[in-house]
Design goal:
Distance between the termini: 64 Å
Radius of gyration: 24 Å
Strand order of the largest sheet: 1-2-3-4
Largest sheet: 4 strands, mixed
Number of helices: 4
Order of helices and strands: HHEHEEEH
Number of strands: 4
């Protein structure tokens, strides 16, 4: 099967029109005040990345909490913990497992691992809560005949869910802090 000359012309014409429309849309988007979330604003205006780096994540209880704590520290303060934090982040993590896909002998072959985090961002100066929220993440895994393989599968599911949860918390904090950065004179 070969391309006809007419189809090639139509495709080239459509690509040309698309190439003309995309820059116009980007121009209109910039005119409405849209700015990238993590953009550097300048030396006198701190960006969201600097605001995120001023958050100290407080320790989270149990082993699962410690893993989430490490992910949050990595995402919020990649260059080290702030010496004099502007904000303190408190997180409470709850983990539940839901068994699914049962065999005829009523043993489960699949499970959902659910992580739920409630968090509060406090100003370090006076302890006032400036932002709070809840984020959830669910990851599935197989329950296998071999207990070790099931444990590895469950650990992998937790890693995936915790990464997703830490990204969601970081994004929500960034959106909140971008609105406070934009409101400062």
């Amino acid at each position: 099967m070969s391309w006809s000359e007419g189809s090639l012309r139509r495709m080239a014409s459509a690509a040309f029109r698309l190439g003309a429309v995309v820059p116009a849309l980007l121009f209109l988007l910039s005119a409405c005040g849209f700015q990238p979330l993590y953009a550097e604003r300048g030396p006198e205006e701190p960006g969201v990345s600097q605001e995120l780096a001023s958050i100290r994540v407080l320790p989270i209880s149990n082993r699962s909490g410690q893993q989430l704590y490490n992910l949050l520290v990595e995402r919020l303060t990649p260059y080290g913990r702030p010496g004099d934090p502007e904000y303190l982040l408190t997180v409470r993590l709850a983990t539940t497992t839901e068994r699914l896909a049962f065999r005829t002998d009523e043993t489960a072959t699949r499970a959902n691992l659910n992580l739920r985090a409630r968090y509060q961002l406090r100003r370090a100066s006076d302890g006032a809560v400036v932002f709070s929220g809840m984020s959830r993440s669910t990851s599935s895994y197989d329950i296998l005949e071999n207990p070790f393989a099931t444990t590895v599968s469950e650990d992998d599911a937790f890693d995936r869910a915790a990464r997703e949860l830490s990204e969601e918390i970081r994004t929500r904090l960034a959106v909140f802090l971008s609105s406070t950065v934009a409101d400062t004179p």
